Amino acid sequence: MVHYELPRLPYEYDELEPFIDVETMKIHHQKHHQAYVDGLNKSLGEIGGTSHPQYISSILSDLKSIPESGRNAINFFGGGFENHRLFWETMTPNGDEKPAGELEDSIDVYFDDFENFKKIFSEKAISIQGSGWCWLVFNATYHKIEIITTKNQDSPWTVQKYPLLGLDVWEHAYYLKYQNKRPDYVKAWWNVVNWDYVGNRFTDLAS
Ligand code: MN3
User: Fold this and answer.
1) For residue 35, which of 169, 133, 165, 172 has the smallest C-alpha distance?
2) Residues 78, 33: one domain?
């Protein structure tokens, strides 16, 4: 059985300042993400996870293969684990301001230009009711990129979409610094997106 562990951050807790504050980063990683790791290991154990040796993204892509008794828990904790793992990787203190290469070209095709993409993505992220995520995903069926939103910890994998970039809009991601002002958090987050990482993820898929 796969045993999941809290992944290390690719930067220090204070390095995303002033956009994402050190206190939020610590609690988000050490408490919230850890809770998803623990919940995922526990719920896999409860259903006899030995029959599911695949990595969590494969399990989320085929949730109906999970016994019904454990499906909701694995959707929640598995999504929480994998969503946050990607979230950390797609941020950096040393980011370029915008995507380049093939991803830039694709954004121009589907969203006219990067500024318009940012506008649409931000509006969708801000308008999520309650807790959830806003995503840039790759739709392999139609070989195109899309913006989607998911509720709670639902992962794009559960709807057969490949996540390229995700923004956590749970209050735990921003409340300490931004209180109820989610639009300010969304605006700040663009400054720390790791376009290099996101672009490589896209190139690996699309080529
Ligand atoms: Mn979170």
Assistant:
1) 172
2) yes
Mean pLDDT of 17-29: 98
In whole angstroms, give the CA distance from residue 9 to residue 89: 7
CA–CA distance, 199 with 206 (Å, rounded to integer): 10
Its pTM stands at 0.96
The CA 126 to ligand 1 mean position distance, Å, reads: 15
From the CA of 134, how far away is ligand 1's center (Å)?
Answer: 12
> In CATH, what number is assigned to the domain containing residue 35?
1.10.287.990
- Residue 207 CA to ligand 1 centre (angstroms): 31
Domain of residue 45: give its range. 22-89
200, with CB counted inside 10 A (0-12, 13-18, 19+), is middle
Distance from the alpha carbon of residue 30 to the mean position of ligand 1, in angstroms: 11
Q: What is the pLDDT of residues 72-120, one digit of tens each?
A: 999 999 999 999 999 999 999 998 899 999 999 999 999 999 999 999 9
